[in-house]
Fold these 2 entries.
Entry 1:
Amino acid sequence: MNNVIVPINAFDRFEVLKKGQTSFIRLIADSGAYGIEIRRELLSEQDPPLDKIKQEIEKYQLFTVYSAPIELWREDHELNKKELNEIFEEGKDLGAKWIKVSLGHFQKGQSNLIELNTFLDQHQEIQMFVENDQTLHGGNINHLSSFFESATEQGTSVKMTFDAGNWYYSGQDVDVALSKLAPYVEYLHLKQVEDDKGEFITVPLQKDGSHSWEKIMNRFPSEMVKALEFPIEPKERTRDFIQMIMEGEALTCNS
């Protein structure tokens, strides 16, 4: 099953900013991807308006995710309504089916989920995802678990993006994250993180050996949508990595 999405930040940042995200759409489609993740932080003057990017994506029939580096809950634990409104309008212009944000500063009993429900009810054509980021608050297992438990109780239409590598940056245990958060996950960001002289770095996925991305991928249904969020160099190797994921899924199904 083809369910692999390629985020634009997998490619060289300087090339993306110089050429624009639109210039990578055909490469991603020709590589056999299911979809593309447009990154708000990488939009530049080289990119056309969002509705024009949408038209280019539609030419190749790619599924569209819009990733925006904003926090859902502000430091005062209130809903970040201003920026949420902005990115959902941008997501509509882009034709995105999913929008991905970070948790921010959720506080059970203080953060108003009913307010979030009201907002999401106004944008039912787009599914919101919350990802574990690399911060100590937004990448904290207990904070995320508290949010998703509360959201489930309130019937909030939100799902989780589980980033396989970010747990290392935020100092969390991947196995504990899986045990507590797996029920809420519908989108995997696959990356491989290595310890380079005491500093974590994200590297391309490896075929050999036992790595966290493989373990995480195998804990979820093979049809779950996955993203390749690691450096793809040269960019022409995109097809190889998509194939690696699809072969791993096939092995899981046959085991």
Note: The longest helix spans residues 238-254.
Entry 2:
Amino acid sequence: MHSPTTPPGWFIARLHLGDERGVAAAAAVVNAALGHGVLTVDRLLRHMRDDERVQFLAAFPQGSMTPVGAALAQVIDDEEYRAFIAPMPQGILSAAPPSADGRRVGILSTMAVVPSVRRRGLGTALALQRTAWLRERCTEAYAMVWLRDRPGRADGVLKAAGWEPVTTVRRYWEQASVVGDCHCHRCGSPCRCDGLLMRLPPAPTGTSEPTGTPEWAAWSPGATGHR
């Protein structure tokens, strides 16, 4: 998949149900960056059965089938929405399920790029393509950025893609890391990392997506996993 945002020498492809090996390799990129068990192949394949609700992208060097980046975006149902807002204090997002008023809520669920190829625009390209996909399908969309004590956090690349910060949620992944099989690279289990909730506002009429290329760090909001 080529677009003006994909840097030269790389390509981004959508993964499909029939490519279990590719799905596993892309999931491994995410797990290596974010923590064991963030994505599992079985869970991914279940979600990917609905092409209209879920898309999983992988980034590759030209001429190679070994992924060096991956990003997952999805339109979530009522149960997934409740799981997404459960760690948040009341009042940050609506407690009403999307089906109650016909909302279509999207989540930019997980994204990672291997350390050796960061700062080359791949994270930006993945973010912009997933942002455009969510804009086409959703009435509102969110991301939960993993906050860590290092420069170049993912909120920079999301701000360049048009996302806005909402609030910091303390220990957002703590409960998920205790009841699931995920292990934070920084904390282990339980995870004590904070998350920055970001939202995607409606695109202004007559404008195009931003194309900035700031530093990018691995991130995920945890709708389908730990971080």
Note: The radius of gyration is 16 Å.
